[in-house]
Amino acid sequence: MGFRTKQVHAGVEPDPVTGAILTPIHQSTTFVQESVDDYLGRGYSYTRGGNPTVRALEEKLTALEGGHDTTAYGSGMAATVAVFLALLEQGDHIVVANVVYGGTYRFADRFLRKFGVDVDFADATDVEAIAAVMRPNTRLVFTESPANPTLKVTDLAAVSALCKERGTLHVTDNTFLTPYFQRPFEMGADLVIHSTTKFLDGHNATLGGVVVVNTPELQELVLFARISAGLIMSPMVAWLTLQGIKTLSDRMDRQSASAMTIAEHLQRHDKVGYVNYPGLPSHPQHELSRRQASGFGAMVCFEVAGGVEAGKKLMDAVELWSLAENLGSVESLITHPVTMTHASVPPKERAAAGITDGLIRLSVGLEDVEDLIDDLDRALERV
After folding, report:
1. CATH (domain of 206)
2. Would you say residue 79 has pLDDT above 70?
3. Same domain, 239 and 252
4. Active site (annotated) includes residue 60
5. 46 an active-site residue?
6. What is the number of domains present in the chain?
7. Which residues of 1-24 are buried (b: 16+ CB within 10 A; e: fewer)?
8. Which of 3, 32, 98, 315 has the fewest CB atoms inside 10 Å of its own CB, making it the most exposed?
């Protein structure tokens, strides 16, 4: 079954009672049991432990990512936290890419350390840099590719091979490219995380996350963490996300094509200092991107000549681009990572990771690309 067919049909079937083509929203806290002796005979007892609507989404993501099973959560960060809760103990060590979503950095730096987990941040574009900080007690390596917000690309197969050699787990965030463009399990990853809030939903309508695993043992661990911490996704969010996923491939194709056009245009603009987009031959990991993904995604980052003040003027002058923290939606968004998504990362660490004060992140939507370029050009004229 092809990807486009799976994104429509996997995990869902007409309701057996009414024939409704859409999965029902099981907006119920609890589920009545047949008997004490056959407790959980229908598979559900309390929505914190599982819900039929949420389960439909989990089965769809399992099919799309090609993993063993999936658990869904109330946010992308809840999914990340569940992985840490499930896998880590006091005295463990982890390696985290030095460019990741700001919330991931914040939790690893401020909470995991407090609970007795040692954390090293390493340049994930350099496998030797990761290997250099690994220890005998390294429990997992956490990557994100392309990375938020600089779009650095990690060699997922090489990191997975290193982790298997060292007896540790490779956890990777696949939010930016989705399983439509990138398949981490095929490159050896053990767990794949998504913020479903982004491209999977695609409509700025929900907050959610999923963890896809490649073994029953890992599924048992993350399930226990979810029910223990109460991190479950709501049935309504799962239902809305199910509808968004049905158009994922068409949206990703269109948004990625527009992102390439915009990146090429900005690269030629005399008021733009530099542009980072994996589809550009000038991107440091362009060839790697071509090898390990089937598309380059809808995210672009660049810096305006003139630094942070020029960047602020640009962001205040755009009209079609909404100044907002989300990404992956049908609406085009513009973000200043230093003051928004990555404000919690210390300035010294931001600078070392290439998150400069003047960096601007674009999430390209479904508007006509000519209109988006015209809007950027008008704003650049005012810089």
Report:
1. 3.40.640.10
2. yes
3. no
4. no
5. no
6. 2
7. eebeebbeebbbeeeeeeeeeebe
8. 32
